[in-house]
Each structure stands twice: as structure tokens, then as C-alpha cells.
Amino acid sequence: MSIQSNNLKTESSTALPIHVQDLTKKYGEMFALDSVNLDVKSGEFLTLLGPSGSGKTTLLMAIAGFNRPDSGSIRFGDEEVILKPPHKRDVGMVFQSYALFPHMTVAENIAFPLKLRGVSAAETAERVATALKTVQLDGLGDRDIEQLSGGQKQRVALARAFVFRPRILLMDEPLSALDKKLREQMQIELKHLHEQLGVTTVYVTHDQREALTMSDRIVVINKGQLTQIGTPNDIYNHPANAFVADFIGESTMLPLTHDGSGSLYFEDNLIKTNYKTSDAKEWSLVIRPERLTVVKDGQYDPEKTIVFSGVIREFIFQGETAFAMMSVNDKYTLSFRFGTDASSWQNALKPGDLISLGLNRSDVIVIPGGREL
Ligand code: ADP
Ligand code: MG
């Protein structure tokens, strides 16, 4: 996306942090939000990621002011906003459904928040023109909304959300109505737009890949509770528990046994040392499929590599990678992935083959507990 938006940039001095404290919202007996605590840093791109029904929209709408929590506090900077109506919170919003005014042109839609704020006609024209350029819709200001594609409508909704230089931008699954190619292109564009505008952004998605692509930090939410907060790298490589490991990326989880003196084993394999039985009752080993590689006898260093042997059960070509499953002792199944370049001998693997898979000790992920069934 071209950088044309100097007059739309949120001054870094005005981008605001958000502090959510002990926020609870019940619908009947069900906790949609259960004592949520969250600090969004000034100017950061933070994503709420969780399955459908986990409370993402409820939290975003509480920040925007469209629903009233039962208890807790929401501050923008030092200012408590929990009792403020949405139009006084100075927040830009983008919804999945676009929520554009169908009887207005593109330019009129984008100008709407400026009109509400009494911005002069001359400045409105200038800001709308810049916003149109920023979202790559120059020249389309006079179009009717119904003449636009889904992707173009979402750009209009976006332009309308930031044209008044809000201090906070909130987006609820804004790309999920778009097809995959356009969605992936828009993810990168939105990320660049955020870099240009510098506005504190809270983004909601149920798509883990989208979250990993776009975010400075990700908050994983499940059943109204925040499960983990971290950078995309933290969340993927150091999941805090089975829910996060399962929800983000692919994984195999294997149960570990504690030897009573601090060491965790999978079958006869020493996985890791220094675990206290007082910290948890059970542990699991999480293995990302792309971290396993086929190894041959005598061709690995047992100090550095943990080796699992078994029989190939499935082998599926999926384009850029192949996906395979190996069963260990007919009891556990390990998934693994590898590249499909023509020279890779792994492409010759077939069900029934006996193989060994190596996991680098530095790729070991141990979590308390196990997979929720
Ligand atoms: P998400 O956006 O993560 O899919 P929501 O925040 O929309 O989840 O919903 C969280 C939970 O609250 C769900 O169980 C949902 O059914 C419930 N819920 C949301 N809005 C209402 C409402 N207005 N009345 C009753 N239950 C609701
Ligand atoms: Mg939702």
C-alpha cells in the first residue's frame, strides 16, 4: 500500500494504551467474559484470537462501548471510559459485515465521521481524498456502495474507521467474508496501514494464521478467559498449555512420565530434566510436525536429537509440503511434514515403511497437563 497518509496519522503522543481490569460480563449464568485483565500498549497491533463463542466480540464491544460489562474497569490512558457511550470514546470500528450506508456514495460514507465532528468541507474533502488513496480506492469516491466488490467495501469501511484519526482502532473479523487470496493480501495491507497510522489497534479473528501474520502480540481467549498473551513467536514456540498448542498450528501431544527425581520421559526417551512434581501432576510433549525429520541409524547425535521409531500409516501430498503420520507401538501417532522438492527422497515414503523421526532437543516443548478431550 502506498504511503500517502501523513494527514491521517495518529500523533504518537495521542495513540493511547488500553487497560482492561477484572472485566466480567454474564449472559444469564454464562460468563462471556470472566475477570479479564489486559493491557494494550500504545500504538501496538494486538489480536484477540479464539474459537467461535470464546468472548472476542464481547470484549471488543465492551472496549467500544456497545455493551455494558457487569463489573470491572476499562481505561484509555488515564481515563475511565466504562460509563461513556460509544460516540464519546473516539474509537474507529470495522465490522465483518462492513456496516456501510448503502444510500451514500463511497466518499460520503468516508466523510460521515468527519461530518459528525463538524470538520470543515475543505478539510473533509482533503482527508477523504487521502483516505481513498491510502486504501487504494482513488477515483472511486463517487461510486455507489453497491457497485463495489466485497474487498472494496471493506476498504471503504476501513477508511471510514480511521479518517477521523481515532486514538484506538477496533476490528472484528474484518476480512472473514473475503476469499483466501484477497484476505491474505489485505492482511499485509492492514499491517502496513497500521504501521503508517500508528494507532493502537485491537483486532479480532478466529484464524490463527491471520493472527500470526499480522500481530505485534496475540491474546488467546477461551471460554471468556485469557489463556496466554505473547508475540506470535512466543505463542507458537512456547504455548502455555494444551489449548494454545492445539489451537495454534498443528501439533502432536505425547504423555510424559515423571521419574520422581525431576526427569520427564516419553517411553524410554529422556525428554527434559528439572521438573518439580509440585508444579503439575501431568506433562505432555508438544511436537510441531515440521520440526520432525527422518533420520537414519548412526546419522544423528543422540545428545542433540530425540528419536522416535515406527511405521508410516498415512502419506498425503499437499503441494508445498507433504503430511505423513507414523504410529509408535500402535499406541501413539506422530504427524510430520516435509518439503516436496523433486530431489527429496522422503517423497518415496509409503505406508508400511519403518522409519525413525528425529526431534532436535532445542525444539522440545513441554506443557503441563494434556490435550482436552
Ligand atoms: P466470539 O466473538 O468469540 O465468537 P462472542 O463474544 O460473540 O464470541 O460470544 C461469547 C459468548 O456469549 C457466546 O457463548 C455467545 O453465545 C454469548 N453471547 C454473545 N452475545 C450474547 C447476547 N446478546 N445474549 C446472550 N448470549 C450472548
Ligand atoms: Mg465474534
Which terms would index this structure?
single chain, six-stranded mixed β-sheet, 373 residues, binds magnesium ion, five-stranded antiparallel β-sheet, OB fold (Dihydrolipoamide Acetyltransferase, E2P), disordered N terminus, alpha+beta, binds adenosine-5'-diphosphate, Rossmann fold, 20 strands, 8 helices
Task: Break the fold down into its secondary structure elements and pairings.
Blueprint: E1 18-27, E2 30-40, E3 45-49, H1 56-64, E4 71-76, E5 79-80, E6 91-95, H2 106-116, H3 121-134, H4 150-162, E7 168-172, H5 180-197, E8 200-205, H6 208-214, E9 217-222, E10 225-230, H7 232-237, H8 242-247, E11 252-258, E12 264-266, E13 269-272, E14 283-287, E15 292-295, E16 305-317, E17 321-328, E18 332-339, E19 354-360, E20 365-368
Parallel strand pairs: 3-8, 3-9, 6-7, 7-8
Antiparallel strand pairs: 1-2, 1-4, 4-5, 9-10, 11-12, 11-14, 12-13, 14-20, 15-19, 16-17, 16-19, 17-18
Bound molecules: adenosine-5'-diphosphate (ADP) and magnesium ion (MG).
